[in-house]
Amino acid sequence: MITIDAMMVCLDLSDIDEKLVAFSRSICERLQVRKVYFVHNIRLYELADDFREMLGDIDLSQEVEGNISDIVAEQFGNTADYEILVSEEPNTEVILADLVKRYGINLTLLGKKMSDKSTGALGTKLLRILPCSVLVFPETASFNVRKVLVPIDFSDTSVHALRLSKELSDQLGLQLEIMHVYRLPTQFFPLISEAEAVKKAEEIVKAKFADLQKRQREIAGVPYTLVRAANKSIAERITLHLEKGHHDLLVLGLKGNNPLPSLSLGSVPTEMYNTDIHIPLWLVYSGEVIKKPRG
């Protein structure tokens, strides 16, 4: 059973906050979550001088906490034990990373606006620096999750994401599909025929799947799809498959081979985060990765 000891919900005082808090409630109703932290960081240096003067003696942190309390009371209630944390630090990503370590956060819930409303720069920084799994909830996403897609590249990271997806699917009665995107070494064309190259590549990948199913017997019955990248990136192929298959959740493993978090995200998760998909994106760090010492 998937148990989340501590979940952090990052709020930005925008319209997406209500949806994010409501989604956190949905998570707590489906999974065992022991503690939820609703957090917001006030970057005072971004406030104009005339606005600061207008505030006068008003305790901004207290006002923000009151606003968040109202949203939580309406959208979350007493679904799980929770705490509201409001800080005033110049660097939001650093303070959030500190909270992850201080409170033993397993999962961070992060809202995401569409690209025409936000650059997503802070979100990308958070993905690189937070030493925990991140569940990204787009503003257009639904709470109703029935079908899960987990792309894998046979690395330990992606296999961990697959195991979590299988456990999640079994626990909640979801439909799970595995996907692998492969590329052909086009520099050898026309020395060998394209059809022969495709056949050989798929034979190799199917052999890898067979070996994986022997090692991870719990995923033996999970259907998988092989997709050729062709003239598109892996992320583009994943996006097209999501649209075609009407999936409700995408799960990806976060790379963790490098001890420096800033170098461990991986290109596919980054590209998928920056793509306007309309379903939640669960970016998974393995427990082993989280516990690795940071250099």
Radius of gyration: 21 Å
Largest sheet: 10 strands, mixed
Question: What average pLDDT do the residues reach?
Answer: 86
**Class by alpha and beta content:** alpha/beta
What oligomeric state do these chains adopt? single chain
Which band does the percent of strand residues land in?
15-25%
The CATH class of the domain at 1-143 is identified as: Alpha Beta
What would the principal axes of the Cα set say about the shape?
elongated
Total beta strand runs: 12
* String of helices and strands: EEHEEHHEHEHEEHEHEHEHEH
What is the CATH-assigned architecture of the domain at 1-143?
3-Layer(aba) Sandwich
Number of helices: 10
Name the helicity range: 40-55%
- Tell me the CATH topology of the domain at 1-143: Rossmann fold
Low-pLDDT segments, ≥5 res: 256-264
Task: Provide the spatial order of strands within the biggest beta sheet.
Answer: 5-4-2-6-7-12-11-8-9-10
Beginning-to-end CA distance, first to last residue = 32 Å
Compile the SSE list and pairings:
Layout: E1 3-4, E2 7-10, H1 16-30, E3 32-33, E4 36-41, H2 49-55, H3 60-75, E5 82-87, H4 92-103, E6 107-112, H5 121-129, E7 133-138, E8 147-151, H6 156-172, E9 175-182, H7 194-215, E10 224-228, H8 234-245, E11 249-253, H9 267-273, E12 281-284, H10 287-291
Parallel strand pairs: 1-3, 2-4, 2-6, 4-5, 6-7, 8-9, 8-11, 9-10, 11-12
Antiparallel strand pairs: 7-12
Helix pairs in contact: 4-5, 8-9
